[in-house]
Each structure stands twice: as structure tokens, then as C-alpha cells.
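Q: I'm writing up a methods section and want to include an example of the input and output format. Could you take the sequence below and give the corresponding predicted C-alpha cells, formatted cleanly so I can copy it straight into the document?
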Amino acid sequence: MSDKKIKLNVIFVCTGNTCRSPMAEFLFKDYLREKKRIGDFNVTSAGLEAGKGDVMTPQASEALEILGVKHNKERKARIFTVQMSLENDVMIGMTPEHAYRCDSPDAYSYVDLIGVPVADPYGRSVEVYLATAEQMRSGFDALLELCDQKLGKKRD
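A: Here is the clean output for your methods example:
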């Protein structure tokens, strides 16, 4: 076995990759830093119908700033591809439909983590985005548990 550390690749998936999935990406990275686990993961996000060149909504960026979460507000939206479904060990859709459209046995949705989907805050107030962020964060312990199971299998 090589000395290269085995990491788990996690991708968050929503529709446009301008609200929920990039927020989840930056929030989960922040969560992993707090847990001192960031080195075990590669975390990213994409949208099933992302527009080329789109950036995070101002409300998403502002919500992350209020929460003190490091992020790149100029980050460009990425469209989810078949290649991404092959490269990622865990795909987390905001809704069951997002997970289904990833077309992978390694795709899960927030319904699997917390029992409810994450509603789209697009066009709503910063307060709605903050509530969305808290809802996403509430699934991170369950997500980390799922990831640790996959990481154990990947390292075996």
C-alpha cells in the first residue's frame, strides 16, 4: 500500500449550485475543521442544472459570513456530470430527486440524514438562508457517521 492518505470524496448536489449545495460544501468543510477531520475528505458541490458562470447568491454568501464560515463568494457553479458520480464516494442531494438523478448507489438525500428535504431558499431573505444552513448542519453528524463507514471500507 502506498503512503498516500486515502480520502473520501463527498459532493453535495442541488439544482443550480448557487444556494444549497455550495452552502453545504462550505458548512461541511467548516464542520470537518472543527472536528479536526478535514484531512480525511475532499468536499465539493455541483448542480444538476447549473448555469455556466453563475456564482453563489448574495444571500447564501451573506448567511455564511454571518455564521463565520470561510467561503469563496466568487466560486463558479459547476454542473453535475456522470464523471462526478464515478469519482465521488458519497453524493448528498438536497432532495430525494436530486439523489435519484445522481444515478448512483452512493447517492443519499437529506431525507436519509434528517428525515426531510432541504427546501430551496432561492430568492428568499437572508433569514431563510440562515434557517437552511442550520437545517443542513443538523445532518452533519449523521453524514459523518455514514462517511466513516464508507471510509473504513475504502481503507480495507
